[in-house]
Amino acid sequence: MNTSETSLATVIRERRSVRKYDPNLKISQEEILDILKEATLAPSSSNLQPWKFLVIQDEETKKELRMIANNQEQVETASAVIAVLGDREMYHNGERVYRSSFEAGYMDETTMSRMIENTNKLYPAAPIGIRENIASFDAGLVSMQLMLVARARGYDTVPMGGFNKQQFIEKFNIDDRYMPVLLLALGKAAAPGHPTTRIPVEEIVEFI
Q1: CA 173, CA 186: separation in Å to the nearest integer?
Q2: Each residue of 139-152: b (16+ CB within 10 Å) or e?
Q3: Is pLDDT at 4 greater than 90 in this prediction?
Q4: How many other CB atoms are found less than 10 A from the CB of residue 191?
Q5: Which of 61, 53, 9, 59 lies closest to 32, judged by CA?
Q6: Based on the structure, what is the number of domains in the chain?
């Protein structure tokens, strides 16, 4: 096993869902942006990247958010809470995404045009429920990557689905295009996260 594989294995094994944070530890906006840049290398359906992030660091705002998030302590004590939003209208990203790939030399102009045309035809015609499922799935991928990137940098996280989404939408004036998927606390642990066990993989895997 090479060094990079060992490092990744260590990050995966050391990641814990942490709920007690050092309230004095502050992570800069620049570092949070770096973490998000790495996180957004995650895959997504047709590379449409149907996600948006709201980074909440203001202390008073975190106190208000805590009430929306079922009074979970980590919302207030973490350095930041990152709200991961799913984009129901991800097809609007198509032209920008594929033109960027063309300009980077990753696809030719014919392929670019075909991808743009197919995206503008397929996604708007899909039922809203299907687009929401795609956005939720891809938001999960980018969130998991975000947690691993944070752990690799020595920080801790916990994903939270337990919050009042309608109140969140109203509080932060979230556009109808986006839907809140989860909140993710980011900071430094004041107490270690509880270790957990897993169902033996042999019981949940079938080779065919």
Answers
A1: 23
A2: bbebbebbbbbbbb
A3: no
A4: 10
A5: 53
A6: 1
User: Is residue 5 in a domain?
Assistant: no
pTM above 0.90, yes or no: yes
Rounded-to-integer distance, Cα 153 and Cα 130, Å: 35
Quote the domain boundaries for residue 71: 10-203
28-80 confidence digits (pLDDT tens): 999 999 999 999 999 999 999 999 999 999 999 999 999 999 999 999 999 99
State pLDDT tens for residues 117-161. Answer: 999 999 999 999 999 999 999 999 999 999 999 999 999 999 999
Phi then psi for 27, rounded to 5 degrees?
A: -100, 130
Establish if 4 belongs to a structural domain: no
Residue 170 lies in a domain: yes
At residue 6, the pLDDT reads 53
* Mode of pairing for the β-strands spanning 80-87 and 51-56: antiparallel
Q: What ranges in the chain are assigned the alpha helix state H?
A: 3-14, 29-39, 59-68, 73-77, 94-103, 109-125, 128-152, 165-171
142: CATH:
3.40.109.10
Q: Indicate whether 1 belongs to any domain.
A: no
Contact between 51 and 105 (Cβ < 8 Å): no
